Amino acid sequence: MVASRGEFSSRLGFIMAAAGSAVGLGNIWGFPTQAASNGGAAFLLVYLVLAFTLAYPVLMAELIIGRHAHANAVRALRLISPNALMRRVGTGTGIIGFIVASFILSFYAIVAGWMIAHCLGALATLLKFGALSQWLTEFSLTRNLGFMLLFMALTVGIISEGVQQGIERWSSRLMPTLLVSLILLVIYVLTLDGAMAGLKVYLLPDFERALAPGLIIKALGAAFFSLSLGVGTMLIYGSYISDRENLPVLGGLVTLVDVCIAVIAGFLVLPAMYVALHNGVEIFAASGELLSEDTLIFTVLPALFETMGLAGVIVSVVFFFLMSIAALTSSISMLEVPVAYTIEEHGVSRKAAVVVIGGLIAVASTVILLNFDTLFGLVVAATTRYSEPLLGFMFCIYVGWVWHRNKILKELRKGSPDVEHTLFWKIWPWYVRLVCPLIILVIFAQPLLG
User: Fold this and answer.
1) Which residue windows are transmembrane per the record (predicted)?
2) Three-state DSSP class for residue 418
3) Contact between residue 306 and residue 312 where contact means Cβ atoms under 8 Å apart
4) Do residues 128 and 301 touch, judged by C-beta distance below 8 A?
5) 0.85 exceeded by the pTM?
6) What's the rounded Cα separation, in Å, for the pair 306 and 302?
7) Taking a C-beta distance cutoff of 8 angstroms, is the pair 227, 255 a contact?
8) How far apart are CA 250 and CA 242, in angstroms?
């Protein structure tokens, strides 16, 4: 069964694919700008703690369910359910998961299209095509629609090739490129005037602020969302892991890579913001608060690049190329969630499933673009702020309360015969049973309660 549905060929291949799924636009621009708005180093400190105390245990829940079933989320949750009622709940949870993943991709494709357009816009500036550059960097329906479709075509092309030749092959190419580009940009930006001010904000914590309830809640959300948990992407990737692999080690490596890239991105974005401020570009609103994330990325940073002359144009090309790669490594995992379900539950060929589902998501993106002011923010909030935490809660309930503990241990022993004697097994079962659901409910309740 495993061979027929595909499997990652190596540990490195899985780590690159899973880290690519986790590392997206949220890591490169979401996390750094959240850190800048919430105490800098204080936010970073809390985030680092919570990434391993919350995100890692939930990630392990998805990976263990996925590898045990070697199937999509719907079938996997049905398989570990002890009775008809829980099978129905599991089916509903899996279906909602792939619907949410599809809607996330519908707005993600729009934002990723902006990244590609800005990258090409910087190239056009470099080649002295001023009119083309202006069109590529200005908000318009034609531009947004065209580049959304281009991004979806790239995502569909990769997913249609399957697990090894599509997901693993391209993740193994894109992730090293992303990391090298990010490090080179960090090194360059840190040499600029004003960068040290941003670095101090990022690295010198205000410990009193680190204990503020509001900051802790925001850091909880950032840690949870940074690993793309809740919609079944990691469950699907877990289903493609060999039974020989040590799951706790794999999950730890993925978490480590994801957190490291988010932290490195902070070394780029925060210093760059203060370089912009040094160069006369405003980064604070009249109220004294930091400008919103989209304003920072699409207004402040391009304005900074303009003040840097030719070097700024080159940096702009590399920066938005980096953002485009981050978006693509995440989008392929999102599309794989509904594709895997369609292939396994309805017997559709991979290429047909990818084209049809990719087309439907592109239609949803088009509807959002045609009603941008009404729908864009609504879809973002409904999927990332509300749906993902609740779905993550359900995965914790299934692993902590529904699936028998001895069966979980048996699954883990496949790749780690002595796992029951490790610190992981002494802590994780009760932690994912009690602590994680409670924390996720807190994350979910916070935006509802304002």
Assistant:
1) 12-31, 43-65, 141-159, 179-203, 215-237, 249-276, 311-332, 353-380, 386-404, 430-449
2) coil
3) yes
4) no
5) yes
6) 6
7) yes
8) 11
Is residue 231 classed as helix, strand or coil in its secondary structure? coil
Can you tell me the distance from the alpha carbon of 94 to that of 78, in angstroms, rounded to the nearest whole number?
9
Spatial neighbors of 53 by CB under 8 A, at least 6 apart, are none
Q: Higher confidence at residue 24 or residue 155?
A: 155
Residue recorded with tokens 């010198």: 204
Strand partners, 290: 284
Which residues are paired to 284 by β-bridges?
A: 290
Cβ neighbours of residue 236 closer than 8 Å, sequence gap 6 or more: 66, 72, 73, 333, 336, 337, 340
Reply yes or no on whether the pLDDT at 50 is more than 90. no
Q: Taking the domains of the chain in order of start, what are their residue ranges?
A: 2-449
CA 386 to chain CA centroid, Å, is: 16
**How many Å apart are CA 270 and CA 137, to the nearest integer?**
23
| The pair of three-digit structure tokens given for residue 170, joined into one six-digit string | 């391209």
Please give the backbone phi and psi of residue 5, each rounded to the nearest 5 degrees, phi first: -105, 0
b/e map 139-175, b = 16+ CB within 10 Å: eeeebbbebbebbbebbbebbbbbbeebbbbbbbebb
**Inter-residue contact 38 to 295 (CB < 8 Å):** no
Radius of gyration of the chain (CA): 21
3-state helix, strand, coil in the chain (%, to 5): 85, 0, 15
pLDDT in tens, 129-139: 999 999 999 99
Give the class (CATH, top level) of 2-449: mainly alpha
What six digits make up the tokens of 88? 């129905």
